[in-house]
Amino acid sequence: MARMTAPVLALRDIRKTFGGVVAVEDFSLDIHPGEIVALVGDNGAGKSTLIKIISGVHPPTSGALTIDGADVTMSSATMARAHGIEVVYQDLALADRQSVYMNLFLGRERVRNRLGLLDRRAMIAETARLVEELDVRIPSPHAIIRDLSGGQRQGVAIARATHWARKLVLLDEPTAALGVAETARVEEIILGLKARRIGVLMISHSLDQVFRLADRICVLRRGRQIGVRRTAETDKNEIVAMITGVASGVE
Amino acid sequence: MSGTVQDTRRNPARRIDWQQHVVYLGFLAIFVFFAVVLRDTGFLTVRNLSNIVLQTAPVTIMAIGLVFVLSAGEIDLSVGSTVAVSALSAAVALNGWGLVPGVLAGLGAGLLIGAFNGALVAWLRLPSFLVTLATMGLFAGVARSLTDLRSIPVTNGAFTGFFGSGTLFGIPSLVLWTVAAVAFGHLAFRETRFGAHVLATGDNPRAALVSGIRVPRVRLAVLTLSGGLAGLAGLLYAGRLQAAKYTLGETDLMTVIAATIVGGTLLNGGKGSIVGALVGSLMMGMLNNGLILMGLSVSDQMIVRGFIILVAVALSLREKAS
């Protein structure tokens, strides 16, 4: 397999039904290392279902999921994580009353021995390093999540995903709840993932943001994959037409 | 170390963490109050003060269990009934088969009741409030029927020494049990992965789940632990009183919850303190002792205790609103 072009994640003919309802069908997509792919579409288009399929929450009804060229069947979020896939959920999935460093290591705490004694020093040091590296501006690794601003929380959630993701980060509306300045900060952090050769698949409702960040744009409508465009080779009019299905002549 | 380096700029008012200090201030205030008011009645004697510590041992041990349970976002209302069933089981087994079977029966009964609660909460996803409300009544009934409302004498000298009136190097065994339970509880709660998972589960169960924490197992574990510690409390009651009766632990529930919450543990999970629960428990014991020495009737004592609990709950819920 070619080294530079091997996708971290390849989806082939993914189909997902809930009862008799088709949520996603005929979905195929490759994501390469260091590539940002945006998933756009109206409400109910199947974007979140797709994220859940990739993150192991809802296994697909049919279709193949390949990670680094190997077929995998993912039946739980734990398995997805073991494969190097991390998700930043819309609600961030942070424990609000705990510290930043405990959240970064939530469920994967560093311990010193078999008894499970926490290695706080190591967790704090690693958090400080990561926060510095990603330029997430929080007062301290000890800060309690509920005392942070929305942007800071988002930064913590992305930092956590970045820290653990070896291959792919899934972002569900990463800046939906943020102001302008905070959005800019979070976008910088996302671009930082690209530099680390991590693949990124993000859902966003802001086309401006999609055009700022994404290398390719994948459009979903009512569970169907309408098309994938290189950001450099398309414009907002075409994408909007694909999302709404209003303009004629779109596949 | 942790929890002190925090951003105080954003909202200074919120960062004064009253729950962490209210129990120590309250403890001091009540101590000083009684020391002054009751200076002629022997409140300040070593004998009386050590009595308070000895009498609160079972409540402290139950409160340690409740810190884990509340921090995980659950509650255990059945601790009082568990104490009675455990003490009676221990007494019957002691008289029939001796020391070790007696101890195992007492602890085993507590662990089983706790595991029963935990299984219903973890796997059937029933709310712990309702489950333990039901088992509180259920096992109170079991305790009554187990011995036909009779009191069972506990005469095994080794048992009463170990769990009651005995001493080691001059230190009463009840104090040693308290210290050991607090030390182990604090270590497990603050310094282990298990403790971190308990806090995460109570703080945000969904986040805990997607982070790979086995949330049902945590819920089972905390309720089993609470049952086991209530079992130990039952042994301590049986050892100290040299008898077991269905009334043991009957009125402890309110005291245990109050001690835990005054001690800085949140009713809705994600935050707790073992040392706080110890001080809260000693405070409740001191309050009982002082109110009796002041000559208050049982009903007046209940009223005053009820007020203290109200204040504690109010302080606990204030954080939630912010």
* Strand order across the largest sheet of chain A: 6-7-8-3-9-10
Query: Order of strands side by side in the largest beta sheet of chain B?
Result: 1-4
* Average pLDDT rating of chain A: 87
Beta-strand percentage range of chain B = under 5%
| Biggest β-sheet description of chain B | 2 strands, antiparallel
Judging from the principal axes of the Cα atoms, what is the shape of chain B?
globular
| Structure class of chain B | mainly alpha
Helix proportion of chain B: over 70%
What is the CATH class designation of chain B? Mainly Alpha
Q: Which residue ranges of chain B are poorly predicted, with pLDDT under 50 across at least 5 consecutive positions?
A: 1-14
- Largest sheet report of chain A: 6 strands, mixed
CATH superfamily of chain A: P-loop containing nucleotide triphosphate hydrolases
Task: Give average pLDDT of chain B, whole number.
Answer: 88
User: Helical element count of chain B?
Assistant: 14
SSE topology string of chain A: EEEHEEHEHHHEHEHEEH
Number of domains of chain A: 1
CATH class of chain A equals Alpha Beta
Assembly type:
heterodimer
- Kindly, what is the distance between the CA atoms of the first and last residues of chain A, rounded to a whole number of angstroms? 31 Å
Pfam family, one (chain A): ABC_tran
InterPro entries (chain A): AAA+_ATPase (IPR003593), ABC_carbohydrate_import_ATPase (IPR050107), ABC_transporter-like_ATP-bd (IPR003439), P-loop_NTPase (IPR027417)
Keywords (chain A): ATP-binding, Nucleotide-binding, Sugar transport, Transport
Protein name (chain A): Simple sugar transport system ATP-binding protein
Can you put this structure into words, describing what you see?
The complex is a heterodimer of chains A (251) and B (322). Chain A has 251 residues and is an alpha/beta fold. Chain A has one domain (9-95, 154-244): 3-Layer(aba) Sandwich (Rossmann fold), CATH 3.40.50.300. Helix content of chain A is 32%, strand content 25%. Chain A has 8 helices and 10 strands. In chain A, the strands form 2 sheets. A 6-stranded mixed beta sheet of chain A has the order 6-7-8-3-9-10, with helices on both faces. In chain A, helix 5 packs parallel to helix 6 (180-195). The radius of gyration of chain A is 19 Å and the shape is globular. Chain B has 322 residues and is mostly helical. Chain B has a single domain (18-317), classed as ABC transporter involved in vitamin B12 uptake, BtuC, CATH 1.10.3470. Helices cover 75% and strands 2% of the residues of chain B. Chain B has 14 helices and 4 strands. In chain B, helix 3 crosses helix 9 (193-203), helix 3 packs across helix 12 and helix 4 (79-97) packs parallel to helix 6 (128-146). The radius of gyration of chain B is 20 Å and the shape is globular. The model of chain B is unreliable at 1-14 (pLDDT under 50). The A-B interface holds A 77-78, 81, 87, 89, 91-99, 102, 106-109, 111, 115-118, 120, 139-140, 142-144, 147-149 and B 1-7, 9-11, 14-15, 191-197, 199-200, 203-204, 206-213, 266, 270-271.
